[in-house]
Structures are given as C-alpha cells and as structure tokens.
Amino acid sequence: RCVIKELESLGKALYGAKLIAQRFEVRNCSHHKNPVSGSTCLLSMIEDGNPHHFFIATQDQDLSNKVKRKPGIPLLFIIQNTMVLDKPSPKSLAFVQKLQTNQLVPEYQKQSIVELKEKEGLVKQEGEKKRKRKRAGGPNPLSCLKKKKKKTQEGQEPSAEKKKRRKRKRNR
User: Fold this and answer.
1) Phi and psi angles of residue 45, each rounded to the nearest 5 degrees, phi first
2) Which part of the chain is the UTP23 sensor motif region domain (predicted)?
3) Residue 94 vs residues 14, 28, 60, 64, 71: alpha-carbon distances, Å
4) Are 40 and 5 in contact (CB under 8 A)?
5) How far is the C-alpha of 66 from the C-alpha of 69, rounded, in Å?
6) Which position among 43, 54, 126, 156 has the lowest Cβ density within 10 Å, counted as fewest Cβ atoms?
7) Which of 19, 20, 13, 139 has its CA nearest to residue 78?
C-alpha cells in the first residue's frame, strides 16, 4: 500500500507504473495509517529472514544494494523490457553454505556408525566377487579358416575339367 501511495503522490509522470502496481496483489503493511516511502516499506516487510518468501522487484540501486545485504531474498529487475532474476548475493550463498554444513553428521558420529555396521556385519567384504566387464573380442575363428582345395584325380589337369557356365541375361 505504501508503494501505491507513493506513486499517487508523485503525480501523472508515474501513472503507468501505478496501474501496473495496482494489478498485483496488495499486501497489507504495518504502517497503513501513516505511509512511509516505498523502499522503507519493502525493507520492513522482508525483515526477520523474509518469512513470507517475497521477491523484490526494483530498479532502485540503493534498495537493491540493501536487499543484497540480507540473505535469502531474490531480486528482480528489468533490462530492455525483460524481467531478469539477479544471481544470488554472496550473503545468500554463504547462508546456504552454513545451513548445509550444520546439517551434516559430525565426524565422531560417522565413526560410531561405521563401528556399529562392522559389529552387525553390514560392511562389504573385500573378497566379494566383482562382475567382469565384457570386452570386444576378435573375429570369429571359424571364419578365419583357409578354404579347402578340391581333390583332383591323378593325371587330369584341373583346367581341363572346368565347365562352361552360362551367363544369365536380365530383362529390363
């Protein structure tokens, strides 16, 4: 509501921006009786870790720098009629990294888990059979055999015994 009030007070120069802002869902803020500036109102709504998971869409560099200092708040802006989602800020990346490291199992618990598995016999033994990979083989040995020569009768020459073959003519 504070953003719409600010746009109304700025006059006809920002009438189009006011119409666009009115199309979206209007969230109630804590200072509806005495409105403050739009950037102050937006910053007050994302305090305490952004519990409602708001995105902030702004062209104001000062406001975007303040938003980048808080972790877990996505920032949108417009470049040549295209809405662009800004990459996560270093604060957001550090916050996520910290959450992930806190969720990992501590080292002493990992050791106790391994010991318990050994006691129960759940650990894989080194001597287990491994599957052999099939590898590409050579050619079929039966296809590599040499051709057998025909036995000829003694005294006859193999050339004299050749039969004449007829060629077949194809009709097209």
Assistant:
1) -75, -25
2) 130-149
3) 38, 31, 24, 18, 8
4) no
5) 5
6) 126
7) 20
The stretches of 1-158 forming alpha helices (DSSP H) are 2-9, 15-23, 38-45, 61-68, 90-103, 107-120
User: For the segment 79-102, what is each residue's pLDDT rounded down to a tens digit?
Assistant: 888 888 988 888 888 888 888 876
Query: CA triplet 7, 12, 13: central angle to 5 degrees?
Result: 80
Q: Name the phi and psi angles at 77, rounded to 5.
A: -150, 170
Domain ranges for the chain: 1-36, 48-119
- 21 to 7, 52, 70, 142: CA distances (angstroms): 9, 19, 24, 82
Is the Cα dihedral 102, 65, 42, 36 positive or negative? positive
pLDDT tens track for 39-59: 888 888 888 878 888 888 888
